[in-house]
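[Q] Does anyone have a clean structure-token version of this?
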Amino acid sequence: MFRCACIFLLAVAMPVQASAEVSVSRFPAEAPRRVAASEIRTLVTQFGGDENLGTSVATILHLQLWRTLRKEPHPNPKHIEFGAGTLLWSDRPIDPVMSAKSIAVSTEVQQVLWGHVHSFGNDAVVTCYLDIPSYEGQGSAEKNRGIWEIKIGAVQHTSLAIDLPQRAYAFEPIKLPMEFVAKYSVPDALVIRQGPGRGRVLGPAGTKFALVESDERFAKVRSPVGTGWIELPGLSEQKPEVVDFVGGIIRIFRGDWDGAISLFSEVIGNPQAPTALKIDAGLYTIRARSELGQDADADIAHVKSLGPPSQSSVQYVAMHIISRCYQGAPSAKEPLCPADKIRELKELLSKTRPLFADDDDWFSAVEDLLYKPDN
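[A] Here you go.
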């Protein structure tokens, strides 16, 4: 079982609640809580559409996403810690007037997961969206921790950085079966029981509870009605890719590289996941392997097999080669990899030059690294 310490978090603005390897709690109108530098925050909002069904779907996704958080790897012989991973909950759907990005900035989160539930005959369809804002100004370096930066040379005189593959995602619609719609379209459909799937009903789950632990199907919570278990039903017969993908990005932000590879491998192997999402999962995997000092040739080959090159795929492949060849090298003149890797990188840039603007800063910096190492 996954276990975590739980504490309540407070803040202001829109009615939001917080959870993590920490908790879920309503955000009252009090002084905003200072966000720790090592804290990665994701906001999940109530889904639009039918209020009861939207609340149930969002709560289930929220709890399933919480299960992907971990403070440390297992086993952990090197005593690694990933800092704080926090999930926030809002009981208000995204307002068309107030964009997900503006909400993200106002609540100082790295991601917002939101969506809608639409009726479709006797069934319903869930559409999920993920927005990842780009911060500017003071403190932006910590908030933009998904950015990949490589420093080259003993005196770190050269630095290369690339952005995330994308900052907005629309996931494949999830068709909810009729029995799910019927069960979770009523108020207080999610209840807390004394035991996992058994025992006396303590009361409705509501939206104010602290998460304690979870297994494959149930989450143990501490709430005003007592400590008990909430069932986490599947949303469809097919496994939606949204939880694995969003959880993988959270792990990238927290430096949980092995954990990110594990979740993104689920996305890549999911027959329901669209190709574009599998490509980005592959790019994040390349990043994670690079951070671990691992070879990513197989991952690069798989990404190439999924479609034509894009700016993002070229950048991630190039950054992997650069990390293996130059990161930790005494200088740009003294790469740490065989000469054929440098030739591979030069050939990649030559073939994909039309994808980049003539004055693209990143492309120019890589060319300077390869052809003008004295700079």
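[Q] Thanks! Anything notable?
[A] Residues 2-132+170-231 form one domain.
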